[in-house]
Design a protein that fits this description.
single chain; 297 residues; alpha/beta; 41% strand
Length: 297
């Protein structure tokens, strides 16, 4: 009997380490906590692991769930995953949102990509042109590291929004896409929005074809709104970013003015900084307020 049990255990381990990645879906059965095993259909936490001949791990799906409309939250711990899909092959209802809140700890994408608004195939999308939008919120104190060749996509087939309220996103492999321009003749199908309210996005990857940082081409459905956050790109991307700003695809939030600068002394190729600074009128009002306060004292 003991031998039989051991064989069953070894068989289970072998199936997990066979080299084939496994899809693990968010169920939210117990709570909104990523770190609770009962919230996943595999009854275990998603993971990344080594196998003979390479590395593999779990493809994580976080979809809209009627029992958990607030979405899934990582509040602590350091997590390693093969790939994460926020809204993949979801129900046909654009009024819903698939939400992933990244509040504390870190998430390391070691296998392939971090995608938002995904259809498994173009034929799936053709049959299901409407689906919930994807929303990812990154907060102060969280670090998202993307080390897989697929990079980051905000709006693959379906609409998606990345809200940077703080924290850090490090793109160390692959491209950064705000709408996937590989579809629909370069126009993309989805609306992709990046709200850079705070925090830092580091695009550390170099695209040899572009001769610049690997920020993939924006489309008319792409939008980057810059607040108090920073996007830092390896190399000199000032002309390209300015061209997108001229098209209205990159804008400063109200009360701010867009700033695109290059520092040749930071990094191997220099670094381009996309930020927003207070408008002159705002600065004057603040200065006047300080003067009045001093006079009042």
């Amino acid at each position: 009997m003991k031998k039989l049990l051991l064989l069953i255990v070894f068989a289970a381990i072998a199936s997990n380490l066979s080299g084939a990645s496994i899809t693990v879906k968010w169920t939210g059965t117990t709570s909104d906590d990523w770190g609770t095993e009962s919230n996943w259909d595999a009854a275990r936490l998603p993971s990344y692991y080594k196998v003979t001949g390479g590395n593999t791990g779990d493809y994580v799906w976080v979809n809209y769930l009627s029992n958990r409309p607030e979405g899934c939250t990582i509040s602590s711990g350091d997590h390693e995953i093969y790939s994460v899909f926020v809204m993949r092959d979801g129900l046909d209802d654009t009024s819903k949102q698939a939400i992933l809140n990244l509040e504390g700890g870190s998430l390391n994408i070691k296998g392939y990509d971090f995608k938002m608004g995904v259809a498994s195939t173009s034929s799936w999308y053709a049959s299901h042109p409407t689906a919930p939008s994807a929303v990812v919120n990154i907060y102060n104190g969280f670090t998202l590291n993307v080390n897989g060749a697929g990079g980051v996509t905000i709006g693959d087939y379906y609409d998606a929004t990345l809200n940077m309220y703080g924290g850090t996103l490090n793109l160390n492999a692959g491209g950064f896409r705000v709408t996937n321009n590989a579809y629909n003749g370069g126009l993309g199908y989805a609306y992709g929005t990046l709200n850079l309210l705070d925090g830092v996005i580091n695009i550390n990857t170099w695209n040899a074809t572009l001769g610049q940082a690997d920020l993939r081409d924006l489309t008319p459905k792409s939008k980057i709104n810059v607040g108090d956050g920073v996007m830092a790109l390896t190399g000199d991307s000032t002309a390209r970013l300015q061209a997108y700003a001229n098209l209205g695809l990159i804008e400063a939030m109200p009360g701010l003015t867009l700033s695109i600068t290059f520092n040749p002394n930071v990094g191997e190729r220099g670094t381009t900084y996309l930020t927003a600074v207070p408008e002159p009128a705002t600065v004057m009002l603040l200065s006047l307020g300080v003067v009045l306060l001093r006079k009042k004292k």
